[in-house]
Specification:
Radius of gyration: 29 Å
Strand order of the largest sheet: 1-5-3-4-2
Helix content: 55-70%
Number of strands: 5
Shape: elongated
Structural class: alpha/beta
Distance between the termini: 97 Å
């Protein structure tokens, strides 16, 4: 890695709009520094870095990594954008919204201002490729991990721009759990959905993409079968053209759409993702979900009535045991007593109907005696 360390002022350094963390929030060159800094504050815990710098100064042994780019040879920070946001917050506290920097103003000493004005350690690289191994280890598999979508974006950049194989990337960053492949598979699937269907990754129902839903989903067999995917796919556009509508539908189930007012059926990864996987194993349940967007009922369809009955009975038993443990707290109200009576009648009716199915001969005898 050919590089040299310089000590610079924050005004000489620029945020990296192609940084995976930044891409996740749709930053562009039109986004102002103040907007970026505030997003770092609200979404990426920049305040903790501000506190650290004000208490101990900027750590000289952790330089920012930069490359020169553009016609004016701007110094773009390819590693350390969150630290740059913290520095800019201290030097310009007024840019932080909702007066969040007010409680730190008295700690912004002349010594701190002088250090940040003249002594930010910067490691200048010849190009972005020089830094990928270090950045990958630190943010994909190391202690300072990015979010899953930022990781996937970075892996895709290294693979496609620097022509590194997934196995080489995994080896260089110490990935022993196949995370690199799963993240990349999720990324190319999301990219295909965004480019080849009516799903728009910038128009999800929530403000951001919960990317772990997708890369976890494709580890399940029924998700892969639904889309016609091989387990080890790495190629661009892995979903065949005749399955693109299914890909679009799956993305809407996972993420919804703000403009189309489509609510995702996945509310939490556990158990909703597992339930959706089971639904996709049943044509009837899948069609019901497609038409009605009700994952709970679709899941009951795929399980079958007997399983639903058993699970409902178990839940009722647990609820009744809880109620039984609180009998001492009964205040004598007629309303509670009537609910208990209704429960007893329903439970008795359920038992008699189930018993009649299990032991029909006994009920035939009873009917004969009654006559």
């Amino acid at each position: 890695m050919a590089a040299s360390i310089n000590y610079l002022h924050a005004d000489q350094l620029y945020f990296d709009y192609s940084n995976p963390r930044m891409v996740e929030y749709n930053f562009s060159e039109a986004t102002s520094d103040s907007e970026i800094t505030n997003i770092f504050w609200t979404e990426m815990a920049t305040e903790e870095l501000v506190m650290s710098i004000l208490a101990h100064g900027f750590f000289q042994h952790e330089p920012l990594y930069v490359v020169k780019e553009g016609e004016d040879d701007r110094l773009i920070v390819v590693e350390g954008n969150r630290r740059l946001a913290a520095i800019k917050s201290i030097l310009n506290p007024d840019v932080i919204e909702n007066n969040k920097m007010d409680k730190y103003r008295e700690k912004i000493t002349p010594e701190i201002i002088n250090q940040l004005s003249n002594s930010i350690p910067v490691l200048e690289l010849e190009n972005r490729e020089d830094a990928w191994r270090y950045i990958g280890f630190k943010h994909v598999n190391g202690a300072a991990k990015w979010g899953s979508y930022a990781k996937a974006q970075y892996i895709a950049t290294v693979k496609n721009n620097f022509h590194k194989s997934l196995s080489e990337i995994a080896e260089q960053i110490g990935d022993a759990n196949n995370i690199v492949k799963k993240l990349y598979q999720g990324f190319i699937l999301l990219s295909q959905a965004d480019s080849a269907t009516d799903f728009n990754k910038d128009d999800t129902y929530a403000k951001r993409i919960y990317f772990s839903h997708l890369y976890t989903a494709i580890t399940y067999e029924n998700f892969r079968k639904y889309l016609g995917l091989e387990p080890d796919f790495e190629n661009d556009n892995p979903v065949a053209e005749h399955n693109l509508k299914k890909l679009e539908q799956l993305m809407f189930w996972l993420y919804g759409s703000s403009s189309k007012k489509i609510t995702p059926v996945i509310e939490s990864q556990n158990p909703d993702l597992r339930h959706l996987n089971e639904v996709l194993g049943s044509k009837e349940a899948t069609e019901y979900l497609r038409v009605n967007s009700d994952l709970k009922l679709a899941y009951e369809i795929c399980k079958g009535g007997n399983t639903v009955l058993y699970e409902a009975l178990v839940k009722a038993k647990i609820a009744l045991e809880k109620a039984s443990s609180k009998i001492r707290e009964y205040d004598g109200s007629l309303e509670s007593l009537q609910v208990a009576a209704d429960v007893a009648n329903i439970a008795n009716e359920i038992f008699e109907r189930m018993d009649a199915i299990r032991n029909p001969q006994d009920y035939t005898k009873k009917e004969h005696v009654a006559r």
